[in-house]
Amino acid sequence: MNASPAAAGVVAVRHATVRYGSVAALASVTLDVSAGSVYALLGRNGAGKSSLIRCLLGQQKPESGRCFLFGKPS
Fold this sequence. Notes:
Blueprint: E1 11-20, E2 23-33, H1 49-56, E3 64-69, E4 72-73
């Protein structure tokens, strides 16, 4: 894991947690995507894919943790 989000590249997620009531859609998710990489976000319904994207776009704040796009907080 990189020390600073800016060094992580295009996407950096640090210990992001999103809950809906007692259900954790994301539980301490950490992710780095560097420039030029291609990733797929796969999972069953309710796995937290949309919650993660909303956090990255700044449309939703995680309960804990941080999300960064291009080194800037989302």
